[in-house]
Design a protein that fits this description.
By secondary structure, the chain is of the alpha/beta class. It has 2 domains: about 180 residues, Rossmann fold, CATH 3.40.50; about 120 residues, Zinc Finger, Delta Prime, domain 3, CATH 1.20.272. Helix content is about 50%, strand content about 5%. It has 16 helices and 5 strands. A 5-stranded parallel sheet has the order 2-3-4-1-5, covered by helices on one side. Helix 6 links the parallel strand 3 and strand 4. Helix 2 packs antiparallel against helix 4, helix 11 crosses helix 13 and helix 13 runs antiparallel to helix 15. The longest helix is centred in the last third of the chain and has 17 residues. It is elongated. It starts with 10 loop residues before the first helix and ends with a helix.
Length: about 350
């Protein structure tokens, strides 16, 4: 699978990037924003290839051989020496920086600037990819800002982030923005079925739950996650009849798997969302395979109570951090969700 195969459903973003290449107006800095798993990193690497592809420089007519009919692709062959080195992450002038722990630190940026003070080894355009740029700490952000204000010649910065608002406004103002939109469910379903061999029903369910992220959908389609989801929804359907002791025990079980907390909150939100929309649009359910249980649970809830529970889940999702008292948060949340 090539880098291009990982960029699905982003024709508008790729068209913008192609315009930069075709008009020879490549900015000195780009910021790719959008959900994780929508192709930002794959597009960054593919764009670096397009900026340095030997075939592109010689006008090779076979450049679009990798693009399926009707799909937008970037003009890089994927076969020349620069393309191969970039694909394998072995090109000395394609610099990839990502968080060291939870943040990108000022020392990382300073080391990067020291490297950039040297001439490129072989690239026509040196490309610096800053993954998860929203994790730049203030000192690192200010150090990067100086480089963006006075960029080195023949150097392109590509920053990736979830939302523009997560970056320093002064950094955003010095970058051209390319938005990667959430993927359509049909696009995610097809990608899971064709590239991962996931059964159609599981692929469709994972796509509905993914929020438009292919990476998240691949995670959600795993068999152990599917089993966990079903178990959790069965427990959630019985919350209103559970004793306080049972709720505390459930919180303890969930809290053991700390890495699953974001998934758990997403599952719970999808459940209460389904209860809310069931009476008006049963064909819009996310958890369609559990429609009978949804129908039974929906009879016990009012729209007002469901909106309160969804708001409670949104609040916990925003406040959840690795340092939070996870079990206490879950106990408080489950007690709220158990109320009718």
């Amino acid at each position: 699978m090539s880098e291009f195969d990982l960029i699905v459903g982003q024709d508008k973003a790729l068209t913008i990037l192609n315009a930069f290449l075709g008009n020879a107006t490549i900015p000195h800095a780009l910021v790719f924003s959008g959900l994780e798993g929508t192709g930002k990193m794959a597009a960054a690497k593919a764009f670096a290839m397009a900026c340095n592809c030997s075939a592109a420089q010689t006008g090779d007519d076979s450049l679009d051989a990798h693009a399926p009919p009707g799909k937008v692709a970037l003009p890089a062959c994927g076969r020349c020496r620069p393309c191969k080195k970039i694909k394998s992450a072995n090109h000395p002038d394609i610099l990839h920086l990502k968080p060291a722990g939870d943040t990108i630190k000022v020392k990382q940026i300073r080391d990067l600037l020291d490297t950039m003070a040297l001439k490129p080894f072989e690239a026509q355009t040196r490309v610096v990819i800053l993954e998860d740029a929203q994790t730049l700490n203030p000192s690192a952000g200010n150090a990067l800002l100086k480089a963006l204000e006075e960029p080195p010649a023949d150097t392109l910065f590509i920053l990736t982030t979830g939302e523009l608002s997560d970056l320093m406004p002064t950094i955003v103002s010095r970058c051209q923005h390319v938005r990667f939109r959430p993927l359509a469910q049909a696009v995610v379903t097809e990608a899971l079925a064709t590239t991962k061999g996931i059964p159609a029903a599981d692929a469709a369910l994972a796509a509905r739950l993914s929020g438009g992220s292919l990476a998240r959908a691949e995670h959600l389609a795993a068999a152990d996650w599917m089993h966990y989801r079903r178990w959790l929804l069965e427990q959630t359907a019985a919350l209103t009849t559970a004793t306080p002791g049972m709720l505390l025990a459930l919180a303890a079980v969930i809290a053991v798997r700390k890495n699953r907390i974001p998934d758990t909150l997403a599952i719970l939100k999808s459940w209460f969302r389904d209860l809310l929309v069931f009476k008006q649009a049963p064909d819009k359910l996310i958890n369609r395979d559990m429609q009978a249980l949804v129908q039974q649970a929906a009879r016990k809830e009012t729209a007002e109570s469901l909106l309160k529970k969804i708001n409670a889940l949104d609040t916990v999702s925003r406040r959840f951090t690795g340092s939070a008292n996870i079990r206490l948060c879950l106990e408080t949340l489950l007690l709220k969700l158990a109320r009718t």
